[in-house]
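Give me the fold.
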Amino acid sequence: MADYTTHICFEVELPREDCAADAIVLYEQIEKAIDSDEWPDALQQFKTDWLVFGIAIRHEGRVLTISDDYGAPNMDLLCDYIQELLRRFDPGGCVGFLYSEDCTASRVGAFGGGAILVTADGAEWYSASSALDAMKKDFAARQKIAAGR
């Protein structure tokens, strides 16, 4: 039996220390709602069927360090959380981070990862497999042009 995991570790720099403290409070409120399955109106936008948030957050000053908690982060919820932090504390800013997808067994297609850029308006996802597919298509097109000469 193979285990599939997703790993993250990145920093979010907020404008002030009190913003980081407020971000921790919001994180704790979401965790509590997930644990109790009771979602107050103020947290409805974060409601999820997942049983865990799957992240660990610590902060020093105005910087949050976000990492996966045992390789199972709820990436959609994480993006929603970061998007809300940007709306509240840095509407013109962005947060970008990388993620890896791993497997404890050697399986074709089981490894990868990508990058996510989150703004106050949304999130853009880029996967390593999509980038590789694009590179292969570009290579094939160049080979076709070279063969036509």
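The chain has a mean pLDDT of 93.
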